[in-house]
Write a structure and sequence with these properties.
Number of helices: 3
Strand content: under 5%
Radius of gyration: 25 Å
Helix content: 40-55%
Distance between the termini: 55 Å
Length: about 80
Amino acid sequence: MSMKRTNVYADPEDLAIIKEAAKRRGISEAEIIRQGIHLAAMANRVWDEPLFSRTFEGSGRTPTKSEVRDAVADAVQRETGTAA
């Protein structure tokens, strides 16, 4: 993987924490900063496809415990052809 050099301004306290962590983990400060950049990039990525492509009809409220049990029992009964 090729990398590109860039300059950023960072808070001195954050850099001190990174320095300590790098020493403790036995890796370079640059590696910790690269990991942080990757996490920031992934957290702000706009995906081409939605995470969920299907939508479900419902009341818009959280079902009760008994409603969930009934829905699962009905699904089991449909799948197995037996009474739950």
